[in-house]
Amino acid sequence: MNKKAIGNYRRTREILDQYGIHAKKGFGQNFLTDLNVLNGIVQAAHITKEDNVIEIGPGIGALTEPLAKAAGEVIALEIDTDLLPVLDDVLSPYDNVKVINQDVLKANLPELIQTEFSDPTKPIKVVANLPYYITSPILMNLLASQVNWDAICVMMQKEVADRLTAKPGTKAYGSLTLAIEYQMKAKTAFGVNRRSFVPAPNVDSAIVVLTPRKQPLAVEPFDKKRLFSLIRGCFAHRRKSLWNNLKSLLTNDKDKLAIVAEVLEQLAIDPQTRPEQLSLDQFIQLANAMHAREI
Ligand code: SAM
């Protein structure tokens, strides 16, 4: 056990006391104090000296430290100004880390990569113990950012991890699953007990690794925005059938619903099925067929 590591429980306590830091709930602050988990995250992300790493929310640097040891360069975005002097001190042995006081949801990531990494052409990985209150917006921003992520390896609450990796037909399967599947392959690396954090959150957690899809989509959507508004509409009432969700989505417009009924029949999709039974390909086929019939 490395007693000097920032993520060592006693060292974390000392740092928090020394700087008078109290975890802020509003920023989702739960500091990791389990060295096995911290090293496990770095291993799950397969970090090497060839990698540029973006860390979201370094906290007091528990994960930043093993990342600095393993990666080429690390850029860490932290929203909480109170943590900056701490990070400045505890990370001073590492000259390949830059902490930027920035809200990740407002960051221009492609620009940041170009300006902050000495070689922006190297593989870019995101590694983080995410602030749980904004897990989905962060993931959506990362996916929308047009950056070719080599991997996104992030800790989140287990329930959200289950949604990311869910299979069709299960309770956890939904619009978040499909938004991720559209671009990436999601895999849970390992689960993490709530006792690995200070303070302990109310839920258990898991590390999810997202890597770019190797297989292209079987069918490309005509219009990605419309595909995802159809998907969100179809999952608006999970306990209702696909047909009843489509009825609400199309505000009961009889003409449009008659066309959708034909489209569903052509695609051999049972209108009485539940939305979670449909695969991403089926949603794309449905969205494309509706688009072609001007719905
Ligand atoms: N990485 C540290 C660890 O594992 O111990 C801290 C993780 S803590 C769960 C989440 C961190 O994200 C906190 O440091 C918090 O201040 C930071 N944070 C919260 N919202 C943020 C935002 N919008 N942009 C950047 N950082 C944020």
Structure description:
With 295 residues, this protein is α/β, with parallel strands linked by helices. The chain folds into 2 domains: 9-212, Rossmann fold (3-Layer(aba) Sandwich), CATH 3.40.50.150; 224-293, rRNA adenine dimethylase, C-terminal domain (Helicase, Ruva Protein, domain 3, Orthogonal Bundle). The chain contains 12 helices and 9 strands. The chain has helices at residues 9-19, 35-44, 64-70, 84-90, 109-116, 135-144, 158-164, 175-183, 224-234, 242-249, 254-266, 280-292; strands at residues 31-32, 52-56, 73-78, 97-101, 124-129, 151-157, 184-192, 197-198, 205-212. The strands form 2 sheets. The protein has a 7-stranded mixed sheet with strand order 4-3-2-5-6-9-7. Strands 1-8 form a two-stranded antiparallel sheet. The N and C termini lie far apart (61 Å). The mean pLDDT is 96.
How are the secondary structure elements laid out?
Elements lengths: L8 H11 L11 E2 L2 H10 L7 E5 L7 H7 L2 E6 L5 H7 L6 E5 L7 H8 L7 E6 L5 H10 L6 E7 H7 L10 H9 E9 L4 E2 L6 E8 L11 H11 L7 H8 L4 H13 L13 H13 L3
Parallel strand pairs: 2-3, 2-5, 3-4, 5-6
Antiparallel strand pairs: 1-8, 6-9, 7-9
Bound molecules: S-adenosylmethionine.
S-adenosylmethionine binds next to strand 1 and strand 3.
